[in-house]
Amino acid sequence: MQFCNLKKQYSDLKPDIDNAIAKVLEHGFYVGGPEVSELEKKCTEFTGAKFAKACSSGTDALVLALMAYDVGLGDYVVTTPFTFIATAEAIALVGAKTVFVDIDPDTYNICPKKFAELLETTDIPKEKLRGVITVDLYGQCADYDSIRDVMKGRDMFLIQDAAQSFGAAYKGANACSQGDISTTSFFPAKPLGCYGDGGMVFTSDAELDLKLNWLRNHGQNEMYNHKIIGMNGRLDSMQCAVLNAKFDRFVNTEIKNRNKAADKYIQLLKPLAEAGNIVLPYIMPDSVHVWAQFTLQAEDRDGLMAHLQKNSIPCAIHYAKPLHMQEAFADLGYKEGDFPVTEAMSKKVISLPMCAYKEPEEIELVCRTVSEFYV
Ligand SMILES: Cc1ncc(COP(=O)(O)O)c(C=O)c1O
């Protein structure tokens, strides 16, 4: 069994994807071809954000977003310690410092109450605390209304790291429309993945969009005229062609398939949850989850993991070592015990195989194997 069946996705769409790639080879605009704006149009129509700029990865999308706000040395940005390193890495890459805030134990996303406490108690000068990067962990949006409430009256930006939530929705609005700038990743294993690295930056602010457009292309506003310092953060035409060919199926079928797979897991694992062996994922009311990961909390998580591996069931831990305990962030001065909810979850969570092409029999086998461990 595979954690996610990426080859199956390709074989179903082979003629469309092969055609799309062949077109790029024929016209020869490998960078900046018509496929790029086609993808950006699809992304704005789908998400509801006014503007979208394709870029080289989800990590670069975050760096570009921070650069658009001129975040740099002496600045601070708030985020969660329970995320992939890229979220806080981007803050460090632009020269700023991360301020972590603990998560909500149900959603695993930034806890609005703790965020409010942080803003009230911090001694970081207001003008230096520039904004927050929220993360929609495992494919479920953070609680944006509550987070926006906390930010009311403060001059702070909200960057939505939607690397895992493209295809999710919050209160009727699709993910990538909740941030002042939102970012996503098209890494192959993400809900919508290309055949390499890729990402997208979204905003509904025309001025920010123009700046993001320059930033991703060496700060260039016209050929060889560089207005600002930027980077090579473009997404090539070939990856855009692949994403264009996959887009409709993702929107019309794959989001539903992922939810069907999650429903089946929840139905089959319910007895274990009732027995107290596991905690099933919490789904926020009025939201659509896209299940980038199907992650539960498990009693004796490491024992369960060994049992699954012994039975050739792939599984993963997202994430075993919180960011405030990573050596790379030692300079921030955090220590074990600073974020108790994050630390507790990092010892309990386990992700089971998930993708849009999980056969019911595969899910049944996974659930049987999980259940065997607790008899
Ligand atoms: C929450 C989060 N942010 C950012 C990224 C970075 O995306 P990429 O791998 O496309 O650079 C990832 C990728 O796993 C992620 O999960």
Key descriptive features of the protein:
seven-stranded mixed β-sheet; Aspartate Aminotransferase, domain 1; 2 domains; 375 residues; globular; Aspartate Aminotransferase, domain 2; binds pyridoxal-5'-phosphate; alpha/beta; three-stranded antiparallel β-sheet
Indicate the topology.
Elements: H1 6-12, H2 14-27, H3 34-47, E1 51-55, H4 58-68, E2 76-79, H5 86-93, E3 97-100, H6 112-121, E4 129-135, H7 144-151, E5 157-161, E6 169-170, E7 173-174, E8 181-185, E9 199-203, H8 206-215, E10 220-222, E11 225-226, H9 237-274, E12 278-279, E13 287-288, E14 294-298, H10 301-310, H11 340-348, E15 349-352, H12 360-374
Parallel strand pairs: 2-3, 2-4, 4-5, 5-8
Antiparallel strand pairs: 1-9, 6-7, 6-13, 8-9, 10-11, 12-14, 14-15
Helix pairs in contact: 2-9, 3-9, 4-5, 4-8, 6-7, 9-12, 10-12
The structure holds pyridoxal-5'-phosphate.
How are the strands of the largest sheet arranged? 1-9-8-5-4-2-3
How much of the sequence lies in strands comes to 15-25%
How far the N terminus sits from the C terminus, by CA atoms, comes to 23 Å
Compute the number of helices: 12
Mean pLDDT: 97
pLDDT below 50 for ≥5 consecutive residues: which ranges?
Answer: none
CATH second-level architecture of the largest domain? 3-Layer(aba) Sandwich
Summarize the structure.
With 375 residues, the protein is an alpha/beta fold.
